[in-house]
C-alpha cells in the first residue's frame, strides 16, 4: 500500500511510526502548508514527495490511500477531495466538526466504495476488545449500569507542555480555532469506549458542559478560551442499562486515563487504560459475595493501523468506519444542544433536531449508535 500523509504534526509522526512497521506499507508522500514542518517531517522519515497543498498531491496521484492528520476543521474538505479522487482514507478523530459534515463524508465514501476508517485509538486497547467479547458471550448477563471516564490533567500540569504558551494546546481551548472542547476532543473516545465495550447502543443523552476561567479576560493572544473543559453525561443504552460518562482536563494526578466499569446481573468488568499500560479485572461467581476482583489475562489485538492496511489489501471494510464516527458525532452535537437548551430535545429523524420537549424536562434523544 502506497500511503500519503496529510498533515505532519506530532500525531502524524506517531502514525507513520506505526505504519512503517507494517509489511507492505510504503509512505510515498507528505502534505503540509508549513514548508519547514513538512521538510523536517519528510527528512526524518525519508519521504521524497512533498506537497504544500492537497490539490498538488492529488494531481500527482501516485498513492493508494491517505491518512488525514490535519486539524479537526480541515478533515471535511480534505477527506472529500481524497474520496473524489478515489483514494482510501484513514482519518483522525473526530471525523468532522459536526454531524452534517461527518454524514456527508460518510455518504461520499460509501458511494465511492473506498475504504474509510477513523482512528479511534483506544480500539487498540486489548482489554477493551476482550471485555466486549465477554459481554457479547453473555458472561455478565444483562448489563444494568455503565460508568466511563476520561481524565486528563494538562490544564494543571506541564507534563505534555505548557498550554499557556503553546499553540498546539491553546487551539484546543478555543471554539474560534475549531475546537469543541474536551467533549469534541476526547468525548468521542470515551463514548466509543463505553458503547463498544458494553456492546450496546446509546439511545438517549443528557449533558452538562463547563468552561472554567483560565486567563484574564478569558483570552490569551488570539485565542479566546471559550471551549468546554469538562463534561458530564447521563445516558440510556438500548438494552435498558443506565450510564454515566464524563471527562475533564482538570483531573490532577491523571495524565491520560480512561476507565470503564460494566455491571451485569451475573458479574462485572473494569477496564483501566493509562499511558503505562492497561488492565482488565472482573468480579464473577463466588467472588461476587466477597466483592473480590481478579485480573483477567488478555491477548494482543491488531491495531487500527493494521486493520486499515488489511482492509485496503482485501477490499473488505473494517471498523471503526466513518458511519460509526458520524453517529458518535451526532451524540456530541446533541450534547452541546442539551447544554444550551437545558430541556428535553427529540430527534425525530436522522437529522440532528432541536425540537424542545416538555418544559422542565431533561433528556436529549438520539437514534441508536451501531457498535
UniProtKB/TrEMBL annotation:
UniProt xrefs under Gene3D superfamilies: Dihydrodipicolinate Reductase, domain 2 (3.30.360.10), NAD(P)-binding Rossmann-like Domain (3.40.50.720)
Gene Ontology MF annotations: nucleotide binding; oxidoreductase activity
This protein's UniProt keywords: Oxidoreductase, Plasmid
Record Pfam families: GFO_IDH_MocA, GFO_IDH_MocA_C3
Location of the Gfo/Idh/MocA-like oxidoreductase N-terminal domain: 2-119
Stretches assigned to the GFO/IDH/MocA-like oxidoreductase domain: 129-270
Signal peptide: none
Name under which the protein is recorded: Oxidoreductase protein
Organism per entry: Rhizobium gallicum bv. gallicum R602sp
Amino acid at each position: 500500500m502506497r500511503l500519503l500523509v496529510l498533515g505532519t504534526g506530532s500525531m502524524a509522526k506517531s502514525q507513520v511510526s506505526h505504519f512503517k512497521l507494517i509489511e507492505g506499507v510504503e509512505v510515498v508522500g507528505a502534505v503540509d502548508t508549513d514548508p519547514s514542518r513538512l521538510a523536517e517531517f519528510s527528512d526524518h522519515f525519508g519521504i521524497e514527495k512533498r506537497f504544500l497543498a492537497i490539490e498538488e498531491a492529488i494531481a500527482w496521484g501516485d498513492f493508494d490511500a491517505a491518512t488525514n492528520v490535519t486539524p479537526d476543521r480541515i478533515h471535511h474538505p480534505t477527506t472529500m477531495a481524497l474520496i473524489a479522487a478515489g483514494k482510501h482514507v484513514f482519518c483522525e478523530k473526530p471525523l468532522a466538526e459536526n454531524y452534517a459534515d461527518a454524514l456527508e463524508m460518510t455518504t461520499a465514501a460509501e458511494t465511492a466504495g473506498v475504504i474509510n476508517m477513523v482512528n479511534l485509538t483506544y480500539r487498540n486497547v486489548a482489554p477493551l476488545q476482550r471485555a466486549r467479547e465477554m459481554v457479547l458471550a453473555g458472561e455478565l448477563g444483562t448489563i444494568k449500569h455503565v460508568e466511563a471516564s476520561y481524565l486528563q490533567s494538562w490544564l494543571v500540569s506541564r507534563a505534555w507542555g505548557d498550554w499557556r504558551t503553546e499553540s498546539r494546546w491553546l487551539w484546543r481551548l478555543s471554539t474560534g480555532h475549531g475546537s469543541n472542547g474536551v467533549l469534541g476532543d476526547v468525548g468521542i473516545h470515551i463514548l466509543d469506549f463505553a458503547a463498544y465495550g458494553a456492546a450496546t447502543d446509546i439511545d438517549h443523552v443528557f449533558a452538562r458542559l463547563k468552561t472554567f476561567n483560565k486567563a484574564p479576560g478569558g483570552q490569551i493572544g488570539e485565542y479566546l478560551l471559550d471551549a468546554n473543559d469538562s463534561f458530564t453525561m447521563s445516558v440510556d443504552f438500548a438494552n435498558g442499562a443506565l450510564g454515566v460518562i464524563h471527562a475533564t482536563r482538570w483531573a490532577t494526578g491523571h495524565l491520560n486515563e480512561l476507565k470503564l466499569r460494566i455491571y451485569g446481573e451475573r458479574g462485572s468488568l473494569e477496564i483501566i487504560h493509562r499511558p503505562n499500560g492497561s488492565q482488565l479485572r472482573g468480579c464473577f461467581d463466588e467472588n461476587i459475595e466477597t466483592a473480590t476482583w481478579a485480573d483477567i489475562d488478555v491477548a494482543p489485538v491488531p491495531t487500527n493501523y493494521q486493520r486499515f492496511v488489511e482492509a485496503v489489501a482485501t477490499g473488505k471494510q473494517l471498523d471503526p468506519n466513518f458511519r460509526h464516527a458520524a453517529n458518535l458525532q451526532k451524540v456530541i452535537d446533541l450534547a452541546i444542544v442539551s447544554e444550551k437548551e437545558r430541556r428535553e430535545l427529540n430527534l425525530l429523524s436522522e437529522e440532528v433536531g432541536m425540537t424542545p420537549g416538555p418544559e422542565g424536562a431533561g433528556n436529549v434523544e438520539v437514534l441508536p449508535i451501531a457498535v
